[in-house]
């Protein structure tokens, strides 16, 4: 049975999508069967893996608003162990379109139940928001990776995300008690800037057992790879970024035994 991990932070631009693509690719590199679900109307994970939105018949929007099964919405990427349910700008209307639906937070959980057995890991790339798409991701997930950029405002935003996770763990009769924090992932570290290291210390003080040992450095390789529609493991396997995402994958594999 696969593990569902939401990659979430309501703060924008902290490396959620970069982590979804490259961690997914790294887990696939280690032989794991991986599904990415792009739950963001910006569809950056979809575009970053080389898909052109106009050519997609179905997306994660259909997963949440139609009767289609998750398995009918899957696209294969160039990597044979890595599949994706793409994102769509139609997700902008999700809150309105689901307005009258009962238990709308639980749609994704129900849809993924059948699919879990087909994958080792399902990674959900969330939008920078605390809305209904994020709630669906958190109710479906077993754990959350919270990417935090090594800068002050990103650190300040962290308690809000942790509160949201706590709400889902304890939410009236619909709680998802199994939800855990897989880890906080520090990203975009500029190793010439001493301030980034201060943020690392502050995050480790706040969540000592929940901060990944792996830290993702700032690198142009990670900005260039999506232009080629590939992960950094495919565009620059021997780069530091590729190594760091492989180390993150190994850390997760060791923690989970899947
Ligand atoms: N380690 C890194 N080094 C350099 N640039 C990075 C790194 N991680 C991400 N970026 C760049 O920072 C920008 C934001 O990254 P990304 O899209 O992964 O963040 P996000 O949290 O998904 O953003 P959003 O909240 O808009 O969905 C992108 O241009 C990306 O290429
Ligand atoms: Mg993103």
Quick take:
With 258 residues, the protein is of the alpha/beta class. 40% of the residues lie in helices and 15% in strands. The N and C termini lie close together (9 Å).
Task: Explain what you see.
- This protein is an alpha/beta fold and 258 residues long.
- The chain has one domain: P-loop containing nucleotide triphosphate hydrolases (Rossmann fold), CATH 3.40.50.
- The protein contains eleven helices and seven strands.
- It has a seven-stranded mixed beta sheet, sandwiched between helices.
- A hairpin with a 5-residue loop joins strand 3 and strand 4.
- The structure holds adenosine-5'-triphosphate (ATP) and magnesium ion.
- Adenosine-5'-triphosphate binds next to helix 1 and helix 9.
What is the CATH architecture term? 3-Layer(aba) Sandwich
Shape descriptor: globular
Low-confidence stretches: none
Number of strands: 7
CATH domain fold name = Rossmann fold
Write the layout of secondary structure elements.
Layout: E1 3-7, H1 16-29, E2 34-39, H2 44-48, H3 60-65, E3 75-76, E4 82-85, H4 94-97, H5 107-113, E5 121-126, H6 132-140, E6 143-149, H7 152-170, E7 180-187, H8 194-206, H9 220-224, H10 232-235, H11 240-256
Helix pairs in contact: 1-11, 5-6
């Amino acid at each position: 049975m696969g593990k569902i991990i939401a990659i979430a932070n309501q703060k924008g631009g902290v490396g959620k999508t970069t982590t979804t693509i490259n961690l997914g690719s790294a887990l696939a590199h280690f032989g794991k069967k991986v599904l990415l679900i792009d739950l963001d109307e910006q569809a950056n994970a979809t575009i970053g893996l080389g898909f052109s939105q106009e050519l997609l018949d179905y997306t994660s929007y259909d997963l949440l608003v139609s009767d289609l099964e998750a398995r009918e919405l899957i696209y294969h990427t160039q990597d044979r162990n890595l599949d994706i349910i793409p994102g769509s700008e139609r997700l902008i209307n999700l809150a309105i379109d689901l307005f009258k639906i009962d238990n709308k937070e639980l749609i994704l959980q129900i849809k993924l139940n059948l699919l879990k057995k087909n994958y080792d890991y399902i990674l959900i790339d969330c939008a920078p928001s605390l809305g209904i798409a994020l709630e669906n991701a958190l109710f479906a997930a077993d754990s959350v990776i919270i990417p935090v950029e090594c800068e002050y405002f990103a650190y300040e935003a962290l308690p809000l995300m942790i509160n949201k996770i706590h709400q889902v763990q304890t939410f009236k009769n619909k709680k998802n008690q199994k939800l855990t924090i897989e880890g906080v992932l520090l990203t975009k570290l500029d190793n010439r800037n001493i301030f980034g290291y201060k943020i690392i210390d502050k995050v480790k003080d706040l969540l000592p057992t929940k901060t990944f040992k792996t830290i993702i450095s700032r690198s142009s390789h990670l900005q260039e790879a999506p232009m080629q529609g590939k992960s950094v493991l495919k565009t620059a396997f021997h780069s530091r970024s590729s190594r760091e995402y492989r180390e993150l994958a190994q850390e997760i594999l060791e923690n989970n035994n899947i």
